[in-house]
Backbone:
């Protein structure tokens, strides 16, 4: 294994730019920002449908939360890591007032036992019409 191994998987949505899903450096695994897009088509967003002008037809933030957590888990597993290996999670929400309480509830379900450090910030927008993105760091055992 290279000291700076790049990790990509078809079990998570493809990156929207030139970067890997994750990069392992020693026993640290740095995940690129991961959103809730469906890994099967890389475009559809669970819980979201838009009209031709980009306005919401349906919006289910809980579905986006669950999808982003599933996508993070897929990248972790592709790198040989587990959910409990996460040590730091940075969360980007496009609407803190509307979405934080739902996010916090779903987060507590997924992270009941694994409690990494966490920072949550509101951003004006993300590169696709998603409402949440996670940036994570995990510590994993040496091979």
Residues:
């Amino acid at each position: 294994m290279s000291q700076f191994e790049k990790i990509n998987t078809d079990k998570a949505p493809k990156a929207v730019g030139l970067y890997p899903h994750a990069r392992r450096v020693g026993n640290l695994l740095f995940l690129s920002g991961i959103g809730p897009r469906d890994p099967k088509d890389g475009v559809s967003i669970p819980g979201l449908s838009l009209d031709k002008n980009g306005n919401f037809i349906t919006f289910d933030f809980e579905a986006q939360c669950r999808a982003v957590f599933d996508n993070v888990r897929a990248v972790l597993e592709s790198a040989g890591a587990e959910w409990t290996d996460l040590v730091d999670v940075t969360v980007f929400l496009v609407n803190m007032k509307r979405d934080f309480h739902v996010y916090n509830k779903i987060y507590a379900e997924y992270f009941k036992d694994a409690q990494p450090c966490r920072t949550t910030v509101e951003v004006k927008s993300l590169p696709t019409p998603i409402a949440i993105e996670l940036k994570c760091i995990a510590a994993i055992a040496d091979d």
